[in-house]
Amino acid sequence: GTARVTRGDDVFLLQENQSTYIPVGARHRLENPGDTSLEIIEVQTGDYLGEDDIVRFEDIYGRHAGR
Question: Parallel, antiparallel, or unpaired for β 28-31 and 10-14?
Fold first, then answer.
């Protein structure tokens, strides 16, 4: 599939076998704009890899606010 990536003020598409870097603290969003299933591989680096530091600024999927 194709991924629509919003990173800060930049919005761009990624195709198969492409990647991008999201700096620490960067506001970002990943969307599937098409009808084809989108599969991604997320690679985290750094000293802390937990997900309890996620801040959701907007969540149209009904996940817990503040996580």
Answer: unpaired
Neighbours of 28 (CB within 10 A): 13
Cα–Cα distance measured from residue 59 to residue 67, given in angstroms and rounded to the nearest whole number: 10
* pLDDT tens column, 16-51: 999 999 998 899 999 999 999 999 999 988 888 888
- Residue 20: both structure tokens together: 């991008």
Q: Is the pTM of this model over 0.85?
A: no
Residue type, 22: I
Query: What sign results for the dihedral spanned by CA atoms 38, 44, 50, 53?
Result: negative
Residue at 60: amino acid letter:
I
62: which residues sit within 8 A by CB, 6+ positions away? none
